[in-house]
Design goal:
Length: 76
């Protein structure tokens, strides 16, 4: 069981590192942002940057989006 846990921990660490690299590159696609968002949600990362250095860094790198929608965007 310990080997399985170590393997899963390694996979999670590698995925997190990959997502951080993509965000830092500035060339992350909307699809990748959605994947990162879901990854954070699946790992119960809401607003806890100090919970884990890697996951906290990933959460802090995500861009912020406004909830407001411009009227022109709705009708165009």
């Amino acid at each position: 069981m310990s080997t399985l846990k170590n393997s899963l921990d390694l996979i999670q660490s590698l995925m997190t590192d990959h997502f951080i690299e993509r965000l830092q590159s500035g060339e992350v696609s909307p699809s990748e942002l959605n994947t990162i968002r879901q990854y954070l949600k699946d790992n119960n990362i809401v607003v806890a940057p100090d919970k884990s250095a890697e996951l906290g860094t990933l959460g802090n790198l995500l861009p912020e989006f406004s909830d407001e929608v411009e009227d022109d965007a709705i009708f165009n």
